[in-house]
Amino acid sequence: MKPSTCDLYTRYITGANEWAKKIGESLVANVYIYNSAEDAGEADFDLGTKTKCNNYTSNSLPEIIQGWKQGGAIAYPPYKYQGASFPPSVILNSAWQESTEQIASSTVHELVHTIQYPYYGNRNPCSGSVPSWWSEGQAMLYGYGVIEEWGIPHFELDLSECSSIQLSHLPQLTNNCVYGMGREALVLLTHLYGDKSFEVWKEFSKNGSTFETSFEAVYKIRVRDYSDIFEKYKQCMISLGFGVNADQRCLAEFDITPTP
Question: Is 83 or 135 the better-scoring residue by pLDDT?
Answer without folding.
Answer: 135
